[in-house]
Design goal:
The protein has 199 residues and is mainly α. It has helices spanning 2-16, 23-30, 34-40, 44-68, 73-87, 96-103, 105-132, 142-159, 163-181, 184-198. It has a single domain (52-198), classed as Tetracycline Repressor, domain 2 (Orthogonal Bundle), CATH 1.10.357.10. One of its GO terms (molecular function) is DNA binding.
Length: 199
């Protein structure tokens, strides 16, 4: 039952926002009493912590699944972006990450600390792969580009209220990041990926 509550809560938090979803809403959606939820979670904050942990795990499973498909480095980034767009599609106009930072800053900081580590590792592997594939320039300072990109991405998510707007700016950031590293061959692949989005 505990896992079912976490799964339902995660779904509602992402769809409607961390602030607006109440314990009553979760109980109502699951056709259980609020008392049942409190049997497993002493308050909403604890449930949010467990839910964000589960979402974090799902996010990295999505990344691992896409990486395993062995697309080229640029295609891989676009596939991951597409999966996240579907995963974080919500009915609330407010970005879940923005809400988490604003209303539950402590939980947000905890997530951020290990999220930055894991994302940095993924960005690094992607850049190394792109260099091997001659899509990114050979002389890149990988550490600097990893730092540039995660600073951009986290800044967008922390400071953009609207999820739709955040995703739009993230696409611009991905293009900017890729163009900054790309060889001529990489630019052609980037244009191909961008074209797929607009068609």
């Amino acid at each position: 039952m505990k896992e079912k509550i976490i799964a339902k809560a995660s779904e509602l938090f992402l769809k409607l926002g961390f602030k607006s979803v109440t314990m009553d809403d979760i109980a109502g959606e699951m056709c259980i009493s609020k008392k049942t939820i409190y049997k497993y979670f002493c308050n909403k904050e604890v449930l949010i912590e467990e839910s964000t942990s589960m979402v974090h795990k799902q996010v990295h499973e999505v990344i691992d699944t896409i990486v395993a498909k062995d697309y080229n480095a640029i295609h891989e980034n676009f596939e991951i972006r597409e999966s996240f767009r579907d995963m974080f599609k919500n009915n609330s106009d407010t970005s879940p990450i923005y809400q988490l930072k604003k209303h539950y800053p402590e939980i947000y900081q905890n997530i951020l600390s290990y999220e930055i580590d894991q994302c940095s590792q993924y960005f690094r592997e992607n850049i190394e792969k792109g260099m091997r594939e001659k899509l990114y320039r050979e002389e890149l300072n990988i550490d600097v580009y990893v730092k540039f990109y995660y600073t951009l991405i986290f800044h967008i998510n922390e400071n953009t209220v609207s999820e739709r707007e955040a995703q739009k700016i993230e696409l611009e950031a991905l293009e900017y990041h890729t163009r900054a590293m790309a060889t001529e061959k990489g630019i052609l692949e980037l244009e191909k990926q961008l074209k797929k989005i607009t068609t």
